[in-house]
Amino acid sequence: MFGKEKSSLKQCAALENKLVEYLDGRARTAERHAVEEHLSGCAACRLRAEEFRALWSALDELPAISPSTAFDASLRARIDAEPARRSFWQWMPSPRLVFAVTSLVVMSVWLSSMQRPAENPSAAKQATQESQVSAESDFGMIRDLPVLENFDVVSKFDALSELPAPPAAPTPEVTKETR
Amino acid sequence: MARTDVQLMLDVKAGDEQSFELLLRKYRTPLVNFLYRMVRDTAIAEDLAQEVFLRVYRARQQYAPSAKFTTWMFRIATNLALNSVRDNRRRKMEISMDQSVDTGEDEQKPLEVPDRAPSVEQELVARCRADMILKAIHSLPEKQRAAVLLHKYQELDYDEIARVLECSESALKSLLFRAYESLRVELAPLVSPTVRVDRVPVDRSGQPA
Q1: Are A63 and B114 in contact (CB under 8 A)?
Q2: From the first residue on, what is the mean pLDDT of each consecutive set of 10 residues in chain B (209 residues)?
Q3: For a disulfide at A27, which of A31, A47, A104, B45, Cβ 3.0-4.6 Å?
Q4: What distance in Å separates residue A19's CA from the closest CA in chain B?
């Protein structure tokens, strides 16, 4: 009993967001059926819906006013006074031009910062050390070139024959067993 | 074939002044009525309506048809009306700090009721009812008032009104329900089946009590 009452109240609260669009005929079919079903069993909501309809009829009684005869002339005068104000905007560059100029400035700043040497002394020192290490390794490579170019050293593969043989590939029987 | 509002506005953008005239003729009266019901002052309503058209005209070069023309126009109108209502309220508060003044409601011009040769009594009743309705609408919070006016009188779609008022459709439906519920209570003498029209309390000046 209590559960049923609670459920009914819940439906009444849910109806609030659907009632207006139901009454103005813009509700979808499923929602319309849901509202109609609820209204058929809820006298309070039915009365509210009737009063909403009556309210909308009453709101229709509000007479419309007409703009004064001077409305158009006054508006035209205000529009005619506009070009003086608009001329300021004519001096403003177009958005494309602003974008192009900004991009150019950003790119030139970026390029100049890339070419500039590091100003931090410790960073500069580290960079110097790195370049020295790099130069030494390059020199070592050059120094060992005669060894690499010596055909006897490169073509001597006797040492390879002394290496143990690689393990044999598994036989088909073993594969079968594992299956 | 009649051009749509968006096409007209695009023509205005291309420099066709005649299309602006067409838009003006089409929306002049709805806009003035919407603003009059928002601010309850014909002079302010007309001034604001002109400001709306002026802003539309100014923005013609930047116009992009991303939404319905009416959504854009009523959004401008609603913002102007809300600002006007707030400014007016602030002004009234400042005046009331200095001296005791009337609320301004009595200073309003009487409404022009369409003349269908009614009797004096009928005319009086119709005027009383219209005044009651206008007062009830004006007693709503500004956002609810704008929602009701755009829904009931301008018949805008829910998504359009939601865009104008910058809220979700769900929030708008809730807002509309609360607004109509307040109006239902406020205008009970007009809407309740048990209360008759001639029971509207009227004072000597013909205004609803």
Answers
A1: yes
A2: 88 92 95 96 96 94 88 95 89 69 51 64 89 95 96 95 95 95 94 57 45
A3: A31
A4: 8
